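Example 3.2
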Amino acid sequence: MGENRTEEDLMHSLANDLAEGVLLRQQGPHLSLYQPTHRRRPENQQDPIRYRNLVKALEDSLRQMHPAAGVRELIAPFQALGDDWSFWNHAQHGLAVLAARGFFRAYRLLRPVPERAIVADSFHLKPLLRIVQSADRFHVLALNRQAARMFEGNRDALREIEMAPGARTLAEALGDEHTEPHTTVASYGGPGGGGHAKHHGHGSRKDEIDIDAERYFRAVDRVVVEHHSRASGLPLVLASLPEHQSPFRGVSQNPFLLEEGLAGDPWALEADDLRARAWQLVEPQYVAKLEAHAGRFHAARAKGLGSDDMKAVAAAAHAGRVATLLVEAESVVPGRIDGESGEVHAADLAHPHVDDLLDDLAELVLRAKGEVVVVPADRMPTGTGVAAIYRF
């Protein structure tokens, strides 16, 4: 990729690209590569090899339909990424690479994804939609009296993110404005009045610490609300010693803060232990969200405003009628949706212009500003892999 290529150049923001429709505006052919990756040796030594095999599959598929010069142009950035060892040394749990003419995106992912190499009329987005949707994502605030750290994750992985400035440490938040104990001077002596002065503190050291802690917790809460929670809408798990839980909650104005926190020293936990304990607190909320979606679907279908029939849903999505689409995460339905009529045609995934029907449905709904929710198989309200709630 070249030594001057920065991390920001290489890794674009997945959430922003999806929200701004960047991935829906590219001209085909569309190349989508997915693979699980590893963060540590020796497992990560095989990742570049597996990646090159997937790139070769993309190249073979392209050659069925496109001239050699065009194929080389599309494959060149994939090959450059494969040779960038600094990239592979900073892998996460998964990788997605999307490319079209004049367009190339590489995303490190917080959860593993199945290996896929697809050339089609549109990008394969379902794994990415599952990752960015808020259903199972959450924030963790690790806190003590002196410092705060922010983490973002899901059921599979957790990583530390850069906390917005202003309250990362007590010193950063309060500067030189630490509370000082107040003192007075009194004279004590005998009847003749020959005494000596003694200094008495009216504010103990504990009072001073408690006042500073409250001020610091207020500052942390303000930064987290303004720069993290409000922007993402993700549930927030407070991870702190038990004696810090109540004081923080007493000053917090964060509507996304979960009622139950993770009581313990977060600095003493490995990232995976922190993730597992936080997920136990978040999972009931996640399940409730999916059950609410399922309930809305059943109510809509009873009124004729919902369907789980693939052909009917495709026609409705083509017409812009789908408000919410639930698609099964693990299901793959080979086929194509006719761009002119919205009709569904069965096809072979090996064909260079064929993708997963569920993925194509999701793209149609996103183009019409609808909501797409990728749901685990055991939480899907239907057996067809799809459930749609119509606008009208």
